[in-house]
Structure formats: structure tokens, C-alpha cells
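Study this fold:
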Amino acid sequence: MNKPISVELLEKYINGKCTAEENALVQDWYFSFEQEHDLISDMSASEQEDLEEHIYNHILDNISALGDNIQELPVEKSRYRILKPWYAVAGIAAMFLIFISILYNNHPQVKYAQSATINTTDLVAITNKTRQIYKLRLPDNSMVWLSPGAQLTFPKTFGTRFRAVSMSGECFFEVTKNHSRPFIINSRSIVTKVWGTSFLVRDNIQGNSADVSVITGKVSVRINGKNKDNIDVLKLGQGEVMLYPHQKVIYLADQHILKSENTGIEPSLQLWNRVNLTFDNRPLREIIPQLNIKYHVHIKVVNEKLNHYVLNADLAGFNLPDVLEALKKSLNVDYEMKNNIIELK
């Protein structure tokens, strides 16, 4: 196991305030437990249920004196609050106790589903091996959301002339504007040059096509390897296609060409739109249909208990992945993306 890291660093990580290097340190520390023996895995299903019930009842005995106020949990400096039934509070307390045991014992009791694995040298390389969307802040404060299976590699410090990353799979970018230092994304088939915008790039190693869809701002796209020696990062080069909001370019590998098209408001991109949502003491069963309509997705609640959670929240300027992350951290729920369905459980 790696040397334990400080609680202060873990708190920064949970609050999303770590640098890229600190993120790498925390996640590398977490995955040092991969080879550790998991004691719970050796238990039968009934033994695991008995242990869970024992922890559950023990916590109930100790929190009964706290009264009704324990149901009100402030999150992110009270921007929104999650009001939950008493049994959910007990579940959060149980998870907290188990997490503390991981920090201070050589044999972790539980293995958490982490968003990504990281290896570091002069570059930071990330592979999202989960069924969730992983959010990452780059050294220039640009944001990237990695869909399941996506990979991203970037330097710990960007160069002075341009900012370059490489990727595969599906990534959504919100790039910090800096016209003197364009943001360049290298993938297998295409190269995307960005001037400050939000857009989706899909380029899988096994696929025979790739595409870029722009939501805001503008990007230029060229075929990877084409006119490579004559590219000026500060100018639009020969063969580069310029894209504006609601436009898309598709790379067709069999023809080795770029094909542009207008997408309008494409439903599959709606989950990346930042919208203003406010819920005033509304149960989750009433909130999920609104999220499905607003983001054009299909969210399914697997755990019926979640439908009884009451949400008092101001989610102004949230895209769907941010909403899911807020629900995950606040309600102690988990989610998985399975084809076109998002399961909450």
C-alpha cells in the first residue's frame, strides 16, 4: 500500500479543489488498494447482509438523540440541501465509518467504484474504466468530461505557444479562452483546434469514423496527419474545416474525408447544456421526469427508496453530469450508464 495521504488533501479532492497533480496523487493512492485483500468479498451474501444490518442498527442507536436536524445536510456552502429519510442518514454514517477504516487500516473493508485510473510521469494519463462520467479540470482550468471507456493524456503544465492533449473515446470539453494559446486535441483520426468553446469529440480506436459537435464558440478540425508539416497553430490551415454552434463534422475513414453538417439542437447533446433548475422540497420521484425532459435522457431509479428523498436545491448552470454528481455526493446514491439508460441505485 502507498504511504497514507493527508485528510486535508482528501477533503480538497472531494470538494473538487485539487490541482491535476494532486488529483493524480489521490487517485494513484486509492488504486494502491487494488492488490489488497478485500475481507468483505470472502463473506457470503447472508453474512454481508448481517454485517450491514449490525452497522445500521448500531448507528441508529447512536444518532437517535440528535433529533430531526440530522436530516438536513448542507452541501457546497449551502447552495443546495438534501433532505432525506432517517434510514438514508444512517446509510451515510455507515459509509463514513467504512471510509475511515480504509484510511487507517492496511486491509480495506470496502472497495469504492472510482472514476478513473491515473499513471504519471511528465504527462497525466487518465482512463475512465467505470460506467459513470468522469469530470476533470486541466492545468489551464479547462474542463473535460470523460464518458465510460474514454482516455485522455495531458501535460502537467501546458506550453507557452499552445495547449495540447490527446484522447480516444468520447470526451466533452469546455475550453478556457486564450486566443494566443489555442487548445489542440489529437485523436486517432482527427485533430481539433479550439479557440474557447464547448464541444463533443468522439474518436474510438476501434471505430471507422469520428466526429466533432459544437455547442458554443468555434473549432477547426482536420484529418490527423494531413498537411501536418504546414500547420500553423495560430491560423486556419489548408484542409481544416471551421465549425460554429450547432454544426458537426464527421470523419469517414473509408473515404478519408471530412463531412460537415448542421445538427440544429441535437437531442444527444442536450445533456451537456447548462440549464437553471430549482427544486423546493420536491421528492426525487417528481424530479427525475423533469430531468429526463430537460436533458433528453432516460433516467431510471433502480432503488425504490431513492424516490422518497426530498430535494431542496438550486442547480443553476448545471449540465446533466454535474446534476448526477451532485445527487451522488449528496444523497449517497450511485449511477451507471447502460446504453441509453442512466440507472440510479
In short: The helical segments are 7-14, 20-30, 45-63, 86-104, 284-295, 320-331. The first helix runs from residue 7 to 14.
